[in-house]
Structure formats: C-alpha cells, structure tokens
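Retro notes, structure queue

What went well: the backlog is down to a handful. What didn't: a couple of records were mislabeled last round, so from now on we paste the full input next to the output in the thread. Example, using Lipoprotein from Ruegeria sp. PrR005:
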Amino acid sequence: MYIPKFFAGLALCAGLAACGETQTEQALYGGSAGLLTSLVLDGNPVVGAAAGAAGNLLYCKVQNTCN
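Corresponding output:
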C-alpha cells in the first residue's frame, strides 16, 4: 500500500513543480508542490515542503532550464 502512494506522490510533485525566474520562486513552487503532495499522502507537511523546495532548486540548478 505504501509503494503506490509513493509513486502517486512523485507523479504529483513532477506535475506541480515548475521552475521560476529566481531562486525564491523556484523554492516556493517546489515547496508548494511538496506541501500539497504530503497532505494528499498523509505525510508531514513541513518535511514535504522542505523536500519539494530543495528538490526543485536542485532540479533547476542541474538541468539549466531555469534562469
């Protein structure tokens, strides 16, 4: 039961996360996606927001698709 929720959360994060023009926007977009995903999956919203923000910042830095 845990594994399908995990993959559903990853899909939701991937769909909601987007790059912003600044690092602040990138952190806010990723944090919002992580927060919403953790609420849907009955997880810790603080951890979800932090993981989403860090994940989106890292993604934008590695991919160089964002400003």
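Agreed that this is the format going forward. Reviewer comment attached to the example: The mean pLDDT is 78.
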